[in-house]
Write a structure and sequence with these properties.
The chain is of the alpha/beta class. The chain contains seven helices and seven strands; from the N terminus they run H-E-H-E-H-E-H-H-E-H-E-E-E-H.
Length: 253
């Protein structure tokens, strides 16, 4: 019997080790900052990189490629579309419902992690901000940023319940956009990775900017993992303390 318990324990350790070593699948829902020629899905999505007067000319220089390959992840889907907005309102008040984030959110495969990297075009295009609303959205309301972002986060969590969603917030956006992102993401318990000191050429990340994005995203996830491990350890210590108190009580009987 003892031998069976030992074998069972070894099997559990092997399974847990395999799960720990498995690469997490990453999907990206983005705009031009995450595009690269022939490396977006669907392939018809408009791309910006490589572009004139920007030194990012290789796939390996993009933020997401660096993040995935430097830190042990695997790419599930990169559904990025140059010029796209979160809401259905685009530049010159045009209807962007064919390319908006809320339209494309269903095409992310089966990810463990989802990075939303958007709102830059909503800010640049002057899309309507709208009101905070968290359910029963009308089609007209989805042409404004706040209700569209809430609709997006709700939809992603419903469609991909197994995935952890993160929001990457670009630097140099309008204050109303930043405030809206923080408020709505807090509502849905979506961590916001606030980017800073991102070098840009033609308003898009340069090689140095891409490297900074990758490193800042990794640093955020590492800190989050450390905090989760600390919480788990604290919980385990509390459980041990309770067990010791129970043993002490039994001994004193």
């Amino acid at each position: 019997m003892k031998r069976h318990f030992i074998l069972l324990a070894l099997a559990i350790c092997i399974l847990q080790g395999g799960a720990a070593l498995a690469q997490k699948r990453v999907s990206i829902l983005g705009d031009s900052y995450s595009t690269f020629k022939e490396h977006v899905t669907p392939k018809e999505n408009l791309v910006w990189y490589p572009a004139k007067d920007n030194d990012v000319v290789k796939l390996e220089q993009t933020w997401w490629h660096q993040f995935i390959h430097n830190y042990g992840y695997t790419l599930e889907v990169n559904n990025s579309y140059s010029g796209s907005t979160i809401c259905n309102t685009g530049y010159r008040k045009e209807d962007y419902s064919d390319r908006s984030f809320i339209t494309r959110m269903g095409g992310l495969g089966n990810p463990d992690i989802i990075f939303i990297f958007g709102a830059t075009n909503d800010s640049w295009a002057g899309a309507p901000i709208g009101e905070y609303k968290y359910d029963s959205w009308t089609s007209q309301e989805l042409y404004s940023f706040r209700p569209a972002l809430a609709y997006l986060l709700s939809g992603l969590q419903s469609r991909y319940p197994q995935a952890r969603v993160y929001y990457l917030l670009n630097s140099e956006l309008k204050g109303s956009i930043n405030e809206s992102v923080y408020t709505i993401c807090q509502r849905y318990d979506v961590p916001v990775i606030t980017l800073y000191n991102i070098e840009k050429q033609r308003s898009h990340p340069s090689i140095a900017g891409m490297k900074a994005i990758s490193e800042q995203v990794h640093a955020f996830l590492e800190k989050e993992a450390e905090q989760e491990q600390f919480k788990a350890l604290k919980s385990e210590m509390q459980e041990i303390k309770m067990q010791l108190e129970e043993i002490k009580r039994l001994i004193q009987k």
